[in-house]
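Handoff note, outgoing to incoming analyst
You'll be picking up this chain. Sequence as last confirmed:
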Amino acid sequence: MRKLHLFIIKSFLPPFIATFFIAIFVLFMQFLWKWVDELIGKGLEIDIILKFILYATARLVPLALPIAMLIASIMTFGKLAERNELSALKASGISLRRIMMPVFVVSVIISILSFNYSNYILPVANLKSGTLIYDIQKKKPAINIREGEFYNEIDGYSIKVSKKDFLSGMMYNVIIYDHNSEQSNDKVIISDSAQMRISNNEQYLELKLYNGSSYIEVYNKDRLKNFAHQRINFKENIIRFDLKKFGLKRSDENIYKNHYSMMNIKQLTSSIDSLERNIEKKEADYSKNYTEKFNFKLTFENDSSNKKSYTNRTNREIVDYTINKVRSLKSILKSNSDNLKYKKSIINRHKIELHRKFSLAFACIILFIIGSSLGSIIKKGGFGIPILVSIVFFILYHILNITGEKQVKEVGLDPLIGMWLANLVFTPISLILLYKATTDSSLLDFSYYKQKINNLFNIG
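Most recent structure output, in case you need it:
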């Protein structure tokens, strides 16, 4: 029996590892597609790009594990069934559940590892990735001057070139408008050609100009323009730009540590408790204040000389005052209601992260049961039908997961139900499929359904 267990595990691990990295790659491509506009034209250093890839893939591990578990289990048990190895084992008196047990234990271990990863490593990965993405968004684009277009990304300058040689880096028919003086656009530089390069000390970006002229408008002491302007011809001229303006400035990570996606279970629990006590206090204060504000009274001085006029005047003032007071209170109530709803949504986002750590870990077990049961029923291994079936099931799982999370964020569903919605739906499905697999059901045998339909029409 020990050899059988080792055989089953060895059959499972290679496809699991392969599909895990494939899932990571696919999810990363989806993630990269979302942020591609923020990365293009930034001139990022290779170490920044490698860090971006590392942190991004680290964030995707908890989601990739259930996918890999589903696909690998279908492939493994589908291959065993296709080769009639499952039938041989069943014929020798070993039940399907006992055959599945060693891989089930592996799935439990992976589920525990997934939870611990989400609790201890994922918050750090989210912190590193979120900070880096924010810094990349704020980074100025690298020099990317296009032919025939003004380039305005360098503070104080507008640059236009007619032609650019991408191999040599030479630019031709260059026009530069200098906006750094008090009069803004009073200096124009024209040159036949120019070339950009980094200075030897790597602190400056140098624009070296060849065969050109500088045109400077001259002003008197009162800053009034004179009739003439100054022209300076040059064979070579260099303009330097500080590279610090183009570099990536790293933010302090301590600023983002209080974000809910960057907390572990203990921190989330503490934060949720603090937020709930705060919202309870706010609700109590609102209730008390509004009760007092609705109990208002009006007092007017008695006008004995004209009692009728007094009565009409005071009644009208009371009505106007009441209407204005109600409108004011209605506006305040709406504002406070929106404020409370926002605070509840923040609490829900904390609970989303809390439940996600458990639900994705538990999904590894559920999807393993589904995958192994489907593999036994389909009796097909490899990357064909198993991949197709896996994609269908995971898309359904993912849609339910996203729907539940969205409803929780909109304060339309309890976080416990919303974040466990997919697992609640798929748990009975997994048990049904397991039962069908252990009883050798023809659930996905299409010839069986074809025969049933033929029999039905014959009876009719």
